[in-house]
Amino acid sequence: MDGQKNTTGEWKSQLIRGETRRQAIRELEKHPEAELAEILQSIDIELLVDVLPLFSAEKQGLVFAAFDMTNRLHLFRRVSKKWFASLFEQMPSDSRADIFQHFSTQERVNLLPYLSKSTREDVLRLSTYPHDTAGGIMSTNFAIIKEKQTCEQAIQEIRKEVPREKMLYHLYVVDEDMHLIGYMSLKDLVIAEPNELVTAIMQTEFATASLDEDRESVAKKIEKYDTIALPVVNENNQLMGIVHHDDAIEVIRAEQTEDMEKFMGIIPGDEVLNYNQTTVLGHFRKRVIWLAILTVVGFVSGMIIQRYEDALSALMILALYIPMIADTGGNSGSQAATVVIRAMALGQVNINNWMAILFKEMRISALLAAVLALIAFFLILILSWESDTTLNHSLGFIAFGISAALAFQIITSTIIGAGLPLLVNRFGGDPAVAASPAITTIVDISGLLIYFGVATLLFF
Amino acid sequence: MDGQKNTTGEWKSQLIRGETRRQAIRELEKHPEAELAEILQSIDIELLVDVLPLFSAEKQGLVFAAFDMTNRLHLFRRVSKKWFASLFEQMPSDSRADIFQHFSTQERVNLLPYLSKSTREDVLRLSTYPHDTAGGIMSTNFAIIKEKQTCEQAIQEIRKEVPREKMLYHLYVVDEDMHLIGYMSLKDLVIAEPNELVTAIMQTEFATASLDEDRESVAKKIEKYDTIALPVVNENNQLMGIVHHDDAIEVIRAEQTEDMEKFMGIIPGDEVLNYNQTTVLGHFRKRVIWLAILTVVGFVSGMIIQRYEDALSALMILALYIPMIADTGGNSGSQAATVVIRAMALGQVNINNWMAILFKEMRISALLAAVLALIAFFLILILSWESDTTLNHSLGFIAFGISAALAFQIITSTIIGAGLPLLVNRFGGDPAVAASPAITTIVDISGLLIYFGVATLLFF
């Protein structure tokens, strides 16, 4: 870590010049894949095609797997299938299945003949699982131990079988039919007595995922059990693959981004939305649908106001505070929805708590309503001092009426905001689709009804 | 994994009855800590005090570390310091420092005498680092190898030194002054030639964190390098601790929750907001500040409408569409802000791209404006067919004016929504504090100005 480090630009020029290339490769071979991928993604594709095969086979696969999907596809489409196949063979099995799912049918058919039988079978099997399930994100690179072995024998086998570059932290103990019967960490094996049976030191109580389990639930298990990898089994409890902790991190990021986008009325795509790689038209498509629906629904407010046109022209002061009432309602509703959606996502509350949640939100909103109505009351007195208050009502009485409407609006919209995610969840939906813009628009409508309802009651 | 499993209730009753307790403990000892913590957190504290010491020492520490913070503190406050100290000694060093930071000064002083010298020093040192830095989340449980050793010697040492329950995946190679010079995975060590020097097989290019590095940056490094643990070094490159991958997951969850709460105008606390454990008053305090500020700012809209009171009473139709214009502006602004904040959090764009971002948002908003204005134009024609349009303007012309104002409003608010997070970031703030309610309120004001501006220009 000491000594001077080369910048990406310096590495680039060393790779271009033939005489320094060999030395540069030898240095770069030692770098972490993430850094190497950064450097190699910044060089021209012609140079990349020359340089990449100079790295060790395992390194090539790992570095390429660390490329952005766009760059991976770009390289694939520029080189011969034969050249690509040797790289493809070396990729970790989960990234291999991932890029394979991005190929067109024709591209798949073109690539398959160049692959070894085992790779071909592996990639075809993995790419049949939906990408949002345990099967879709698992890797088939795992180390197994037969149940009859001693610790010594198991270590010998690992020495022989596991290539240098491959990561290996957990070992899975299986019987002759690949039924998963236990697991151990490599350390448990190393510190055990050499002639002890592996079955004597293995852990038999552990979490597993099933092939079709939702990827979010898989990530939550990895998080809950603080584990490095979660074994994935089929319905016969046979070991099919493992999901690594770094895939869990990726899933958590993707799901949370998706949740936030859904909540703000943006339709999430298959991949995490990459701001730069999404075109203007792509962004437009993701955003326009909710906006259009809500603009149309927004006209309902117009129709409500139209119904109260007479009241409005008789008491012009009412028009002034429509946006304030609407905004405060929208804000308190969205806040309540955010808090409830997060609490549900983190598993702190669930649908069975709905009565407790709504009761709690009711008490919170009563406090909020009291404080904000008081603020509004005095502000109206100050700001509308010179307004002409027709209909023989004192300004104080009018301010009281508007503040009371505001208080009702805050309580109603908080309950709507907290209740909508619960309702969506109750009918099997994702709470995050109870979008904040939808809440804003709904509480605008309820707010106007409350506002004019209170006004009619008090002033006319 | 086969055979019938006990439910939490069944475990509970087995633990209560003296004659089945020993058997239950033996079974539970094999369970993952997360499950065990769930069971033990559900039993009465008197029973817990009896039962917990029956587990192996390491298990006790790990299970207690998996308790919720509230339950950990609750137990601490109910038992004797001496009883607690033996549990405390067994906890992983990072959770130990974490709970220690939650103690009052008096509680710390009371506990310290019961601790061993090494634990006391460790916890005092760790708890001096701020909780949002690498030092604050790192663990001091790591395995080091001296640089002069052979692989065989290193393995012998691990066999001797590392207790059964401790996790161990990476080994750090240090010189006699604890300078970090390399690392290797346990697997690299196991498959190496026994008489090779550890320095020959270690990796020398790897990422590290500094003690005062922000925890979010630490989590991002763990994510980028797909590593299981990131070494933390001081300014002399001496190894001080490691941050585990599961801490990275926790940080990512916490930061994203915090971002979403900030964005919805909720003041986040030190801990991830736990919905149930936060009181009504606690929720109220977190939510009231922004709401109150924005209600006050919302009165600016009232003042703007007041200025245009004459126009409004002359052309009542204008009042009808105020909420629709305001909502659509708020929604498109919040959408733009969400997309930009996520892209910045995921490292896809940064402040240097601001021109490109704003230009892209301008093009997206132009498309949105065109579609929505068209929808609005026809809806106004349909809904206001019977309205009386004074001032001798045709309904078509009025509908055109309102739709044009809507189009301007969408473009302006999209740019404000995308620009505000960039601006906050430019001045060193967290983009997520460019709260969505603030954007809604700001674009309400700009929207009203545009609306009445266009109306005055066209109709009066």
Write the layout of secondary structure elements.
The structure is a homodimer of 460-residue chains.
Chain A: H1 8-16, H2 18-28, H3 33-41, H4 45-51, H5 57-65, H6 69-78, H7 81-90, H8 93-102, H9 105-111, H10 117-126, H11 134-137, E1 143-146, H12 151-161, E2 170-174, E3 180-185, H13 186-191, H14 198-201, E4 209-210, H15 215-224, E5 229-233, E6 239-244, H16 245-263, H17 280-307, H18 309-314, H19 317-320, H20 322-345, H21 354-383, H22 395-426, H23 436-459
Helix pairs in contact in A: 1-2, 3-5, 5-7, 8-10, 15-16, 17-23, 20-22, 20-23, 21-22, 22-23
Question: How many β-strand runs of chain A?
Answer: 6
Oligomer: homodimer
| Nearest-integer average pLDDT of chain A | 87
Order of helices and strands of chain A: HHHHHHHHHHHEHEEHHEHEEHHHHHHHH
Terminus-to-terminus distance of chain A: 79 Å
Which strands sit side by side, in order, in the main sheet of chain A?
1-2-3
CATH architecture of the largest domain in chain A: Orthogonal Bundle
The biggest beta sheet of chain A reads: 3 strands, mixed
CATH topology tier name of the largest domain in chain A: Tetracycline Repressor, domain 2
From the alpha-carbon coordinates, what is the Rg of chain A to the nearest angstrom?
A: 31 Å
Residues in helices of chain A, as a percent range: 55-70%
Biggest interchain interface, per-side counts: A-B, 123 and 123 residues
What does it look like?
2 copies of one chain form a homodimer. With 460 residues, the first copy, chain A, is mainly α. Chain A folds into 3 domains: 8-128, MgtE N-terminal fold (Alpha Horseshoe); 143-244, CBS-domain, CATH 3.10.580; 280-459, Tetracycline Repressor, domain 2, CATH 1.10.357. Chain A is 64% helix and 6% strand. In chain A, the strands form 2 sheets. In chain A, strands 1-2-3 form a 3-stranded mixed beta sheet. In chain A, strands 4-5-6 form a 3-stranded mixed beta sheet. In chain A, strand 2 and strand 3 form a beta hairpin. The termini of chain A are far apart. The mean pLDDT of chain A is 87.
